[in-house]
């Protein structure tokens, strides 16, 4: 018997009012991220649980694997969270807005 993964939505289906939680590492975030996203790397989640925003969350990484793990972790702890399937690669492919923390155009790395 297989277990279903965490709830997932595409970049264009993020629930209204949800905070976009980007769990990629610092270099990935700096290269390009959604303008209104909150950055909290997966590797730091357990030590920074008090920094997870209240309310619904849409969790994103590069392709959706890390964010699926974080989504499952957060749902188990009572958070209302969905995984953004396809991650920032899908976000970028859909032409959604992105910004970078340095010179040059925003890009997903």
Model description:
The chain is 23% helix and 15% strand. By secondary structure, it is α/β, with parallel strands linked by helices. It starts with 7 loop residues before the first strand and ends in a 16-residue tail after the last helix. The mean pLDDT is 94. InterPro entries: GlpE_sulfurtransferase, Rhodanese-like_dom, Rhodanese-like_dom_sf. Residues 14-100 form the Rhodanese domain. Residues 1-25 are annotated as: Disordered.
Question: What is the fold's blueprint, element by element?
Answer:
Layout lengths: L7 E2 L9 E4 L3 H6 L6 E2 L17 E4 L4 H12 L4 E4 L2 H7 L16
Parallel strand pairs: 1-5, 2-3, 2-4, 4-5
Major sheet size, sense and barrel closure? 5 strands, parallel
Class computed from helices, strands and strand pairing: alpha/beta
- Major sheet: order of its strands? 1-5-4-2-3
- pLDDT below 50 for ≥5 consecutive residues: which ranges? none
From the alpha carbons, calculate the radius of gyration and give it in angstroms: 13 Å
Tally of DSSP helical segments: 3
Give the overall shape. Answer: globular
Residue-averaged pLDDT? 94
Distance between the termini: 35 Å
Percent in helix: 10-25%
How many beta-strand elements? 5
The secondary-structure element order is EEHEEHEH
Give the amount of beta strand, in percent: 5-15%
InterPro entries: GlpE_sulfurtransferase, Rhodanese-like_dom, Rhodanese-like_dom_sf
Pfam family, one: Rhodanese
Domain Rhodanese: 14-100
Region (Disordered): 1-25
């Amino acid at each position: 018997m297989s277990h279903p993964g965490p709830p997932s939505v595409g970049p264009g289906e993020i629930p209204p009012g949800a905070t976009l939680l980007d769990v990629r590492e610092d270099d990935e975030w700096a290269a390009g991220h959604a303008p209104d996203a909150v950055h909290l790397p997966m590797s730091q989640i357990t030590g920074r649980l008090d920094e997870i925003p209240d309310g619904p969350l849409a969790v994103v990484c590069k392709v959706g694997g890390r964010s699926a793990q974080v989504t499952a972790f957060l749902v188990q702890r009572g958070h209302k969270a969905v995984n953004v399937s396809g991650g920032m690669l899908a976000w970028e492919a859909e032409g959604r807005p992105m910004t970078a923390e340095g010179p040059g155009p925003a890009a997903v790395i």
